[in-house]
Write a sequence for this structure.
């Protein structure tokens, strides 16, 4: 069975331990096999579990859960999770555990080349193109080759995405990005990213985006949407129910006004919620002191913002939304 590398855990897993769920989810590491669609995808699955305990992971890091707990229930809804830029499949463990406690099976994977342990392709177009395909491959695996696939209801599949994961989700559910619209960001001599070089070389991806009609509902938080990447025409096929969140202040490339514009362009208005006094990374799980000291950018909220209290409400809202939309 696939094991996460300790370096990947140090920055992300520990951050999640501050929010231990009332009940404990079953935990399984997974690996979506490499195929013609892309490389192997490392990940984790959270399942409903009736036996609270805790699992010790590599390097002495402890994660609440029950390893390989028998899945409690049948015909269960599935939620697939897409992490943010340079994130990890463990970036939203509190939300995943809350959903599992509520009767959902939750599956998250690392997007190759755009993770905490491997950011080799973070600034390439290839990541933006392949991320939606990664999510489709994850759903294929969970509904097909996963050894517990028989407990899932293939007609009840949802998606959760944060930051670049929210962009990923928007494409999966029907959005068609115009990568050529990013060209103005590359004006000037200082724009030397691989994407800018591809634009200068005339190598902007123009192929059809990967969509997945099995996704029936989506929770999207703080998508980083540059001007022109999507318009009403390119969002015309996004017709499923969406719970759309944005931070009050943005950050890490997210401009709050662009999320407001997205809300107006969607053909079916989403349930749109703005989190007062929040910043972009407020959507990550609450940080314990050691992580806050090691990576303050991920853990520092605006003065007066209570991340733990917010996540309690945020997770409850995600559970309620998916229960309603995937009933």
């Amino acid at each position: 069975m696939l094991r996460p590398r300790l370096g990947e855990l140090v920055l992300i897993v520990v951050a999640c331990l501050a929010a231990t769920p009332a009940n404990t989810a079953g935990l399984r590491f997974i690996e979506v096999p490499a195929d013609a669609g892309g490389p192997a995808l490392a990940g984790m699955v959270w399942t409903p579990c009736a036996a609270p305990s805790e699992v010790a992971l590599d390097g002495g890091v402890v994660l609440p859960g029950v390893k390989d707990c028998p899945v409690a229930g049948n015909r269960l809804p599935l939620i697939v999770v897409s992490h943010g830029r340079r994130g990890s499949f463990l970036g939203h463990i509190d939300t995943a555990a809350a959903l599992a406690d509520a009767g959902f099976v939750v599956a998250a994977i690392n997007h190759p080349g755009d993770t905490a342990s491997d950011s080799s392709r973070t600034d390439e177009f290839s990541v933006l193109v392949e991320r939606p395909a990664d999510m489709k491959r994850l759903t294929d695996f969970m509904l097909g080759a996963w050894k517990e696939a028989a407990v899932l209801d293939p007609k009840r599949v949802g998606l959760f995405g944060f930051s670049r994961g929210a962009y990923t989700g928007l494409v999966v559910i029907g959005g068609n990005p115009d990568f050529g619209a990013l060209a103005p960001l590359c004006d000037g001599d200082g724009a030397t990213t691989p994407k800018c070089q591809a634009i200068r070389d005339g190598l902007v991806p123009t192929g059809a985006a990967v969509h997945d009609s099995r996704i029936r509902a989506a929770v999207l938080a703080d998508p980083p949407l540059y001007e022109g990447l999507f318009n009403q025409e390119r969002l015309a096929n996004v017709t499923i129910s969406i719970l759309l969140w944005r931070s009050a202040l943005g950050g890490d490339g997210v401009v709050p006004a662009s999320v407001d514009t997205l809300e107006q362009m969607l053909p079916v208005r989403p349930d749109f919620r703005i989190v007062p006094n929040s910043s972009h990374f407020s959507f990550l799980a609450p940080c314990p002191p050691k992580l806050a000291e090691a990576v303050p950018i991920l853990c520092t909220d605006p003065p007066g913002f209570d991340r733990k209290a917010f996540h309690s409400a945020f997770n409850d809202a995600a559970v309620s939304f998916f229960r309603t939309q995937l009933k």
